[in-house]
Amino acid sequence: MTRLTGLLYGLAALASLTTAKPVCRDESTKFEAEDAVLSGTEILTTQSGFSGTGYVGGFDTSTDKITFTIPSSSTKLYDLSIRYAGIYGDKKTTVILNSGASTEVSLPSTDFFSTVSGGQILLNEGTNTLEIVNNWGWYLIDYILITPSAKREAHNINTSLVNPAASTEAKTLYAYLRSIYGKKILSGQQDLSYANYVATLTGKTPALVASDLIDYSPSRVAYQGNVSQAVEEAITHHQRGGLVSILWHWNAPAGLYDTSENPWWSGFYTRATDFDIAATLADPTGANYTVLIRDIDAIAYQLKRLQNAGVPVLWRPLHEAEGGWFWWGAKGAAPAKALYHILYDRLTNVHGLNNLIWVWNSVAQDWYPGDEVVDIVSADVYAQGNGPMSVQYNELVVLGNDKKLVAAAEVGAAPKPDLLVAYEAHWLWFCVWGDSFINNAEWNSPAVLTEIYNHDYVLTLDEIQDWKTIGAAQL
Ligand SMILES: [Ca+2]
Question: So what's the pLDDT on residue 439?
Fold first, then answer.
């Protein structure tokens, strides 16, 4: 659900990856697409600049693919590069290793053959298969290149939160998070009810529970009254020793269409409102600006209840902004970033909310609101197969310059810990979405969930009961 925007970022990410991980060309192995097994795709030669005897195109239906056969003398981690031409615009492809975890790779628009990072692949000893499958389709593949991965360098995470007035609770939590980063992953679940479902299923309770402030949005309260228990649920989990993350599907302050296709309760979607964040921010004396601030103040009231209850909050506002499907991201990066700064300033400096640890939730460089207002960078990743999501992890390490902790704030499928370790994908936490994901075997089978929740690398509620003591010892 995340989107890279533009060639510039692709090149920047690649350049940074190359800087961090020197590549010895002699160790790289090239596999020409035209020599692989093709299904629904074809060998072409009209686009100049290809390597070998041609390239592969014709990705126009969902099952179209290229299957590479890759031998490896041992079980080993490799960096994957894909040479492609994006002459039909920004596209995405799916990479599937050994019929297992799938990875989504962005192929930004180009006029010529160009190389993009496909993340990392863990090859087994013997024969491996790597498939490049349609996804959005309409791109040209020249070859893939694999290079043994360099060992990840030590992280260099900031020692302080961005808010100089951060509360002792927030500082303690941050110190604890830093102490486990790269060593363990916190298990997490959206909604207290589904966290309890996980406990029944696996025998282990998630360390982290995420709650959604959606139903405190004033434009929803106007329709249904005060129905939310999100704050109470967060406090319940905190009181049993757990960690709390908060997001907010912010129902637009005004301009809801409230039609059968786009009812009032879908008012956080771009398609369900004419609320224009760019126009609103351009007119600070306008009525829409007034209701925008009214909404922030209403949410501040709920966050203050958490502060008063001693709950430090991993606060993730304006999530998935770069996707554009929510109104706060609908007008591009500039108004989304401006709104984030307004939120930061008003919650911190007007409302004195010092219990917040600020979690940014987009991958793209040009959407990043700045080091001075972000404690943790994160992404929402929906890919089946319980993979390590190493592409997004590595992008976020680059985005935060390896000074920001990195979290998988929403996932469809919980990652397998052995793969996280093998890929050195040091996500601080994973948090599985609720209905139709955690309780859906296509995304998370009970057997895999039980394996994950009982793994040494995965911290569960019973294993983090001393987080305050550990955190306080580092202050
Ligand atoms: Ca080729």
Answer: 97
